[in-house]
Amino acid sequence: MHAFFNKFITRNSSLSQFVKQYDNCLASREQREREFDAVDFHTVIPCATKSTIEAQFQHVYTHEKFRDVQGQFRGKVNYITRSVNSTLGFTIYEVVEQVSNSIFNKCFITYDAVSREVKCQCLLFESKGILCCHSLSVLSFEQVDNVAPKYILERWSKNINRRHTHIKNSQDEPLLEPRSKRFDDLVFRSHNICEFASESEELTGVLHQAFDNVMAEMQEYQERSKVKSLLSHEEATLSDVNDLQGTPRVKSKGRPKNRL
């Protein structure tokens, strides 16, 4: 709470000052996110290793989160021992990491080659959402080119659509107002539908199926619109080229001849 309103309000601020500074705080936070997004899309942090998995995270994650992931790729593992558990159907690894000159850290990792699922005893992914150096060393040992989709969290993606941007404030641009109004109308109507469907499992299943059908139809419509827009642009470009390459008409002198 204090970090969010840092440099905007104090304990002595009045209620009217709080309302005004709240809008200023949202505007400042939104501006910072736009600046970070611009940096993420127009700059690239070089990979620390030649791992294709690191390049996979580099392409998807924001700079801030990729630096955290990159720190795990820099982690050094001293040696790995491998044992296959034929009963359970996965491989168990023992990874030893040197923490200091006289301290060694030992972890056990399970790996399923079919699903490409890896789980480490340190539980770093479960707590912080990034794979640890132990798991990455096992994936490298198994010559895995890319990780399973479950290990790439959408919340760290640079392409994520932030839902809080639909919240209106006094700093909104006029061009965003129609979108905000459409969003409010959709939320209102969907709330009534969801409240009705939640009365039974059957109605909930019907609504889920309807949502899937509508989502597929909207994506298909969006793709058709993109293709149509692209074709229109190409036709306009070809028309401009033909006009430039066409032979110009030169008017002849005198009265035009009458043709029978």
TrEMBL record:
<dbReference type="InterPro" id="IPR006564">
    <property type="entry name" value="Znf_PMZ"/>
</dbReference>
<comment type="similarity">
    <text>Belongs to the FHY3/FAR1 family.</text>
</comment>
<feature type="domain" description="SWIM-type">
    <location>
        <begin position="105"/>
        <end position="143"/>
    </location>
</feature>
<feature type="region of interest" description="Disordered">
    <location>
        <begin position="238"/>
        <end position="260"/>
    </location>
</feature>
<keyword id="KW-0479">Metal-binding</keyword>
<comment type="function">
    <text>Putative transcription activator involved in regulating light control of development.</text>
</comment>
<keyword id="KW-0863">Zinc-finger</keyword>
<protein>
    <recommendedName>
        <fullName>Protein FAR1-RELATED SEQUENCE</fullName>
    </recommendedName>
</protein>
<keyword id="KW-0862">Zinc</keyword>
<feature type="compositionally biased region" description="Basic residues">
    <location>
        <begin position="250"/>
        <end position="260"/>
    </location>
</feature>
<keyword id="KW-0539">Nucleus</keyword>
<dbReference type="InterPro" id="IPR007527">
    <property type="entry name" value="Znf_SWIM"/>
</dbReference>
<dbReference type="InterPro" id="IPR031052">
    <property type="entry name" value="FHY3/FAR1"/>
</dbReference>
<dbReference type="GO" id="GO:0006355">
    <property type="term" value="P:regulation of DNA-templated transcription"/>
</dbReference>
<dbReference type="GO" id="GO:0005634">
    <property type="term" value="C:nucleus"/>
</dbReference>
<dbReference type="GO" id="GO:0008270">
    <property type="term" value="F:zinc ion binding"/>
</dbReference>
